[in-house]
Each structure stands twice: as C-alpha cells, then as structure tokens.
Design brief:
about 300 residues, alpha/beta, Arginase, Chain A, eight-stranded parallel β-sheet, two-stranded antiparallel ribbon, binds manganese (II) ion
Length: about 300
C-alpha cells in the first residue's frame, strides 16, 4: 500500500492543517468503506505519449472542485463510505505491477469493497480482472481494441488488455464501447468475434441505449467497468496518451455508468495523461467517479 491516505488517523488534531493526497470525499476509514480509491502511478508500457503515472493525483486535485452532494442522485458523498489509500508504490516491471494490483484488489473484493482504481496506463486493469468471478460481465470504454496477442514483446502491454481479459473471462462476456482504432491483425484474429466491440460510429448512429440493451440481454448480475479515457472524444478528453478523433461523448459514457452502476463490483479510470490536458480530462475523470458512486448509492430513480 502507498504511504498516503488514512494515516492522518494517527494525528487527528493535525489532519485538517495539512494538504492530502486523497479525494476530497474520502472520509471513511478502510474498515468501514464501501469504495476504496487508490492510484497506480505506472505508465511503463505506454508507447506514444507517456505521463499517465501522474494522473492519480491530478484527478484527486480536480475532484476538489466538485460538490460533496450530488443533486442528480440525492447522494452525500461524505456519507457514501469512500476511503482513499493513496498511491501504490510501483516499480518499472509491468508484470510485478499487475501482480500487485491483483493482490490489493483481491483483498478489497474479498471483503466486499468496490475498488476504484486510478491509473496509470490500461495494463493495470488486468490485475483487477484476475479477481472477478467468471460470470462477471466486463464493460470497457476505449478507442482502441487493445486486442493484440502481444506488443513490443510484452503480453501485458497496454495494447493487449482486452485480449488478456478475454483469456480470463471467456467469450461473450466483454463489451468494448467506442472502438475506432484496430490493427488488421487484431481485426482478422479468430478471437475477434468473442468480444463485442461497439464502434464509436455505431454508438453515434444507433445511440448508447442500443448498446445498453444489448448488454442487458446477457442479464449481467456483476459488472467490472474500465474506462480508458481515450474512448471519449478528444474534444472532451484531450489529456490522454494515445488520442483518437471521433470518439463517444462524455454524456454517453455517463449513461453507461449510471445504467449499470448498482451491479458494478470494480471500477477503474485509466490512461489520463495530465501533461497533454487542458484541465477537462482530469475534471471529467473525477466527475465520472462521482457519477459511478452517486448512481450506485442513489435511492431515487435516475434521470
Ligand atoms: Mn486501452
Ligand atoms: Mn485506448
């Protein structure tokens, strides 16, 4: 575990006097938390624009701008049971990082807590997915199919995440939304049809409701939700490592999250890259986390 977060419990009289690296609404101790936020500052396999290792704290800083009450859901985040453990200490070896993520998310999930992981690059998702029950449906928002068998000699490269998830979950369980960047080898692979890739064009022409209904036809009772921020259009989310034009809208991403939130058992936001951001991407990442927790906790019917 990282050294940040929750340690101020040792010095309660001082805790309000110091800045902190946890999201503003994370006021629950770990033992009582339902949502456990943590960062994975790793971007070791990123191929184009590095820097997602700096995202966790940037997203936390953006989160400071948000109200602790979410009017749309009638939820007070200060009583939503959120803990922030800070950032994992990670080295440069991707397989070690993924193993560490597997270990910590396993600990959280076995105690019934929902991990909310702040990447870092997309490879970190594989560690969390190794813990989820086999009947779990996985929803990914991503511009890229991430479906390479390996990339630059590494099967845990961030370009291989969906392929690794397929090996864990099997055919018919994975829905990737916003696809618009696919290599010929990926597209022609025998595995391609085992994942349902909704292209960004299809979402635009048929509407996000069509994707939601198709996923619902699987009657998913448990969902793992992974947001690669580059799935959203670069006009709304420019701060990413590998941007692709013509993405899905932020509002469509929100609709997917809010529709499925109550069944989500693990959640991550990855690939946000602060140095290329104008402030909007970190803000959107923070808000999507609020949309997730707010709609999952909401007792009122959603808009
Ligand atoms: Mn990805
Ligand atoms: Mn991507």
């Amino acid at each position: 575990m990282g050294n940040n977060g929750c340690q101020e419990d040792n010095v309660p009289e001082l805790k309000d006097l110091f800045s902190h690296r946890k999201i503003a609404d994370a006021v629950s101790p770990y033992t009582e938390a339902r949502y456990v936020v943590f960062g994975v500052p790793f971007d070791g396999t990123s191929s184009f624009r590095r820097g997602s290792r700096l995202a966790p704290d940037t997203i936390r800083l953006a989160y400071d701008n948000l109200e602790s009450f979410e009017f749309s859901y009638g939820v007070d985040f200060l009583s939503a049971g959120i803990c922030d453990l800070g950032n994992l200490q990670v080295g440069e070896d991707v397989s070690e990082v993924v193993d560490t993520v597997e270990s910590v998310t396993g600990t959280m999930m076995r105690s019934g807590k929902v991990p909310v992981m702040l990447g870092g690059e997309h490879s970190v998702t594989v560690g969390a997915v190794r813990n989820i029950p086999k009947d779990t449906v996985m929803i990914i928002i991503d511009a890229h199919s991430d479906f390479r068998e390996e990339y630059i000699g590494n099967r845990l490269n961030h370009a291989c995440v969906t392929r690794r998830a397929l090996e864990i979950l099997g055919a018919g369980k994975i829905f990737s939304i916003g696809t618009r960047s696919v290599s010929m080898e990926e597209y022609r692979s025998e595995e391609w049809s085992k994942v349902r890739f909704f292209t960004a064009n299809e979402v635009r022409s048929k509407g996000i409701e069509s994707a939601i209904q198709e996923i619902e036809s699987k009657n998913p009772s448990r969902i793992y939700f992974s947001i690669d921020m580059d799935g959203i259009d670069p006009s709304e989310a420019p701060g990413v490592g590998t941007p692709e034009p013509y993405g899905i809208s932020a509002v469509d991403a929100r609709s997917l999250i809010t529709h499925f939130a109550k069944r989500i058992i693990g959640f991550d936001v990855v690939e946000m890259t602060p140095v290329y951001d104008n402030g909007n991407t970190s803000m959107l990442a923070a808000k999507l986390i609020q949309d997730f927790i707010g709609s999952r906790e909401s007792m009122q019917s959603l808009f």
